[in-house]
Every structure is written in structure tokens, then in C-alpha cells.
Amino acid sequence: MAPLVLRTVAETVAWAESIRRSGRRLALVPTMGYLHEGHVSLMREGRRRADVVAASIFVNPTQFGPKEDLSRYPRDLEGDLAKCASAGVEAVFAPVPAEVYPPGYQTYVDVEQVSQGLCGARRPGHFRGVATVVTKLLCIFKPQLALFGEKDYQQLQVIRALERDLNLGVEIIGMPTVREPDGLAMSSRNAYLSPEDRQRALALSRGLAAAQALYRSGTRETSALVGAARRELEAAGLREDYVELVDATSLTPLPAIGPGQTARMLVAAFAGTTRLIDNQPIGG
């Protein structure tokens, strides 16, 4: 059954309120559309954990920099709605930008610490836009839970922080990265890749695997673990944006992984002109 398509904040608030009044548990999956199996897995998990699943499909302009790909970001609303239907989504909020940011809009959300470094340093203002739109969506829907993929790991930590700090009362659930059979993390931006760049992009997951293998062999120093991942990027001819080993919660850089400590390695690199990210837990 095709999901109900909601175009305005007012009708979305009314729909979500009707779900809550009926005593049903609501899960929300925020997306920018051009859905892939990673998004669909979040929706299916939402169905498992709640009575009703809603999604948003909104290419959020406030999280794109002036030289980024807002105008060409891939869009396919018809295909997205079919995927939502297959996952049991009951309603989709698909607004135009002016509905989310009407004339006179002036309020933004800044999550200060976990948004520093990594993608936050390379994409100024990005997490301000993410935090703002997610806060708005959580306030509009007031779901009991919201699901996000771990592929955008820094984003997930930003969202966890804003929910906690603003006392929004929503359970934030992070789900493991969904990968192609060859290991490439699923991403809407993979559509930009040429066949050659698509093959070269596998160096991101290979680099993470190399670092994990080195850790399992007994290495704990960040310089060696990062070096293992970096060599894979260099061998494939990718242009590194960053390779960092950080604390899995605070995202602060680590000189080494201590006993029982869970770290996260995050990588970003360009395959051709396409910037891709990936990450993996290490240690713990």
C-alpha cells in the first residue's frame, strides 16, 4: 500500500498526533531521498520496534555549502515512495524548502563539541543544518524513536547529543552500515561514481579492514593503524580528506587505543570528484 504523502507541517503534525492518540508507537526515519537498501533497512527495523513507521524525504538546503552538490543531489520521489511502501512506511513527509524554512526563519541548532573536526571541519555549517532539520522533524512528528545509519557516524553522534541536551524524549537508534556485496558502503552519492571510480572507492572499506586486522594482531598506536588505512587509499589513487582514529562517543582523537576502549576509525576521500565517507569500530 502506497504511503500517505504529507506536504505541509500542519498536516504532518495532525497525522502524527492521530497516531499518538490511538496509542500506537511511532518510529521516524529521516532521509534526503534517493533511497537505497540502507534506508530501507532502517524502515524495516522501525517496523520491528514500533507500530507505525513514518519517513521524511527532504533535501535539506541548510546542510550544503555554497560549492556543494545541492542542485544536483540525486532525486527520485516516485522510486522512493515505492521503496517506502515495500518497507511498510505509512506516511512520508516530503515538503518543499519554503515549508521547512518559511520567510523570516531565523532559528538554528548548534551542537558544539562532537561537530568539531572530521566532516565538521571540512564542511563548515553542515552539522548546524543537520541538527536544525533533525530537531524540527523530531518536534513535528514527536516519535517515540528515530533511526539513523552509522555510515554517517559523526552525524549520528550530533543527533544523539541534541536529543539528550534538548530533552526531546526520543530514542535515537543507530543501525550498522549496509554495504554492497564487495564492501562499499551504500550511499546516495555512489550514483555519481564512474565504473572506474566505483572500483577505486573500495579502498575505503579495504583501509578500514586493514586497520582492524592490524589491531587484532596487537597494534594499538594510532599512527600505525591510520597508516594502514591510508596506504590503501594511496594505492587506489584516492585523494584523502581525512583518516582519523577517535573515541567512539566523544569523537576526540586518540594517540592509541587503551585496554577495553572502543575507538572508531573514520575516513573520507575523493574518488574522482565524489567525496565518500566510511567508518568502523576498532577495539573494545
Describe this structure in words.
Catalyzes the condensation of pantoate with beta-alanine in an ATP-dependent reaction via a pantoyl-adenylate intermediate. ATP binds at residues 32-39, 149-152, 178, 186-189. It holds the Pfam family Pantoate_ligase. The chain is of the alpha/beta class and 284 residues long. The protein has two domains: 4-175, Rossmann fold, CATH 3.40.50.620; 192-277, Pantoate-beta-alanine ligase, C-terminal domain (Pantoate--beta-alanine Ligase, Chain: A,domain 2), CATH 3.30.1300. 38% of the residues lie in helices and 20% in strands. The protein has helices spanning 9-21, 37-49, 77-86, 97-100, 118-122, 126-141, 153-165, 195-200, 203-216, 222-236; strands at residues 4-6, 26-31, 52-57, 91-93, 145-149, 171-175, 239-247, 262-271, 274-283. The strands form two sheets. Strands 1-4-3-2-5-6 form a six-stranded parallel beta sheet, with helices on both faces. Strands 7-8-9 form a three-stranded antiparallel beta sheet. Strand 3 (52-57), helix 3 and strand 4 form a beta-alpha-beta unit. It starts with a strand and ends with a strand. The relative contact order is 0.13. The mean pLDDT is 97.
